[in-house]
Please model this.
Amino acid sequence: GDDDDDDDDDDDDDDEPRPPPSLRVTGLDQAEMRLGGVSEAREPQRPTLSQTTGVPRGKVRARNDSFEGEADPDTAGLKGFVARVPQVQPQRTGTTAEDARRERFAKKAQPVLRSRAPMRAPVAIASENESESDEATSTGGIVGRCMEMCPPKEVVKREEMREIDLFERPYEGDDPRGARNPHHVEPCPGYPVKKYQRSAADHKLNKPDEVRPPHVLLETEDYLERYVIEQDKVQGDSRFVRSRGEKTAADLLEDVYMFYWNRNRMIRKDLLLQNFTGGGLTHTLAMTILERSARCLILFEHLLSGSEEFRRTHQQQNQKQLNETLTACMSQYSNARSLYDKAVVTGTVHHMIQNRPTGGSEDYWFNLDAKGVVSEFEPELTAYYIVFHIENRITVTYFLKELTSKVRRHVNVQEALLAFAALHSQDWAKYCSVIRRTSNIILRCLLSTSRLMKRVREVALDALNVTQSLPIAGIVEWLLFEDEEECVACCVKYGLQPAQTEAGALVLNGTRPRENAFTLPSDPPIPRPLRRFIRIERRYHLVKAGTHERMPVTLSNGRAQPDSLPPEEGPVRPVSASSRALSSRSGTPIGEFVGSQAADQAADQAAEQAAEQ
Amino acid sequence: MAQLQQLLGGVLQAWSSGDGHRLSAAFILPLRPHPLPADVRNAQSNGHDLDALAAGVLEGQAGGDFVETVGAYLQALSALAQGSWERVFAQLHRAFDAYSKTLQGAQDPDFVAFLLPTLKVLARHLNLAATRADAGAEGFKSLRKAENTLKNCFTDMLKDRSGARKPVLLCIAAQLFQVYSRMSNIPFAKTLVNTLKRPTTLQGVQQVKADIITYNYHCGRLFVFEDQFQEAESYLGSAFEGCHKDAVGNKRRILAYLVPVRILLGRMPTDRLLDKYGLPHFKGICRGIRTGNLRLFEQALADNQELFIRQGNFLILERTRKLCYRTLFRNLQKAAGYGPENTRVRLGDCEAAFRWMNCDSEPEQIECILANLIHKGIIKGYIAHAQVSSCTCPHRQGRAVAQLSMYSPLPQCCLSLFLSFSPFLSFCPFLFVSCRDCSC
Model:
């Protein structure tokens, strides 16, 4: 139920005011947030679910002393102070059905508001809150102060407008840990999340009370990834029971996607409102959010690309958003780099680093100093950027010039480069082998998007036409078709008629004489998503491909999770010497850099093996 | 003040002397350490109004627009002393605008010719300042502004019926090319090229050689990106030949594109050329292509990857790989004893050759390479999966053979290079490797 028109955020950069250069970040310990919820996810009790959600501090903080609130005793005790958080009570004005509904929604909102005590006493901030907010608005910038995933005002308003999504209704089942479903997906606790809105003349978005600061945005993204994106796998959830009867699993996946897409877009919009996108501000958490958003968008594109409905209505939008996300992420990196480089030139870098707050918004200083990359995931996202623009050789050529050698040498970037070169020199076999070999499953998804696969297969079938009696079974493997049926249908579309041999195998007879000429049809076949080569466990792979947060190694039922997942390699094939060397290289964990030395070793090894044979 | 007075005096003299080049020399921004900017800065901080200073010297001699140009130029010098490229750009932009107005007002062809050299200098510095101002900042604010200004200037000069202003067209076009390439938008320059290509545009216009060379170089690069290698070769070639023999840096820049393009078209550079211009990074590639030594080729590409990426010729060099494959197959065919009678090459042999070269030797890789080469007409032949039905062997590569007949010649003249028997083949181990796992 979202509007898909294209005229979105473009105008926002201009009319949004710029905030002061230094951002005041309050709230959670950010290093803890960034590394995510190892400890949080392991907590056994229900309230911990909401640890990833926001706490109402924005509006309430100023009047904090006059409130008597409830606090989660565990967390409060842990942090060593008694927090006072207000308990939001729904207003009871009557006993109509409308009120009952409102109460239900408020109840659902309640655990969010109540469960997690703030980790730092808000009292100190409260006194200076007013003056600072005035200052922020007077200088024309905004610093978000909404400490919840959804501003309380919006909760009330949406309740009135009856715009509550399925995923925002509270979970009412008896088994909160989701042990019944085979995927160990915890059911979504159903907290309200700020919905995507456009700014208009009568609807200004840049109100500090309704804009979430980066660490809350990160919490929100985390919540969505943890509790929303796999909800189609939860069975017996009463919220979806009725709809399940009418809907297929694919429909449910689309629902999940639409919810995620909408809420994630608002997260990025909030970043934009605070000038982290296009406004020139740099923030480590903003990078993290953009990185994670990009991965999710890529994954969803892959998962849904088989659906006609998605392709018709939403694919273009999704790619546009992905482009924006990746571009914003790259500009965050380059901003951070130029800040660092300037400090290096002026010789103040050590001074700057010593004065940085650790574990916070400016972690990139430490990363650049210690590892030479802005973020641990900079090379990975760079590879996504290259592959996303892989068809535009000028964009990529100029983009590559800007890369530092550290990033360029990273295995993912090298794979992206290999694919780039392969695509433009019509080397389809190498392109497909990059898909097969890369250990980064999200890169695989991106490399196998339907328009790229279509292009590669066209080139390949055209070239393979010089081959006589080429078995279809071979083509299926080489060009990563799902099955022979798809392959045959594709060949027929391009004017190549498979023939049957005496033994019953299907073969393609080449063009000698040229009776089977390769022709480009007006309606080329759309490749199916590569399910055979890419087996995705959404949360697992979001985590595996670039570990922003470590997923719980053991679940509450004691079963180790990673082992129970399917291996992510493609079908087993005979491996030759050099590819063995390569595959051993590709098995290195992401984040590790393969220098020329390692490559040399691998080459030597391959040479030795070849010599032996 | 001495430097400043000297500058203003020089401008005044040049203006009254009628020597355009002398005037343009006064507007060259000192990029190396020079006392002039600091001097101007001092004058400004001592309370002098630079615009008024310029007006005081030139009053009565030159028009108001020119006086503004000089004033803005002085401001730019002052900003340069402070190290703020944003302000340098803003002032140079003002100077350029004012100077364009001066030029527009000029009627006499001699006077126009007198004004043109300074316009070129200002255009060049505008481009430079925009680049410096945008370095490290997000977006291309200054470059976009510079692009707009230069584009308008280009259109104005183009519209001139008298033709007196046309000699500056190529220079402005070259500057625009640079601006576009810095904004990663080189295809935008296509309209310029199309305009300048029209026979009527530059008919009978005297051009400065340096402008022609710069323009040809940028044009050649544009055609490289568009895969029009013949066109690219002609532009780059003429740029290389016209380039002054002492401008080694420029020659190297041209060669960075010209060498790969010529290789793709079949003309290998001599070692002497590469030595002369200090381009050792092409040597491995050339040698690899000549001898079919894929290992050497890959190594050269991998070792110099960063350099090639920076030069922007990484992708075309990747595409010369097919020539290396071609020589390798050719040598394989000779070395493994295939002759005119026996032209069928087993794919297993090809695989062995590739394995020996440390390359991916999956069967489809070989078939892909061969099929592509045949498809593009670089090799003549076909691939046949002959005994598919009778074979029980699981390894397909044993069964497939490629019928490779005569190699089609490369487009140009260097066949003798390719035909030469390369020394490494005499030790070729895969001579004895035939069908690896298969008895068929």
Remarks:
- Chain A touches chain B through 65 residues (CB under 8 Å).
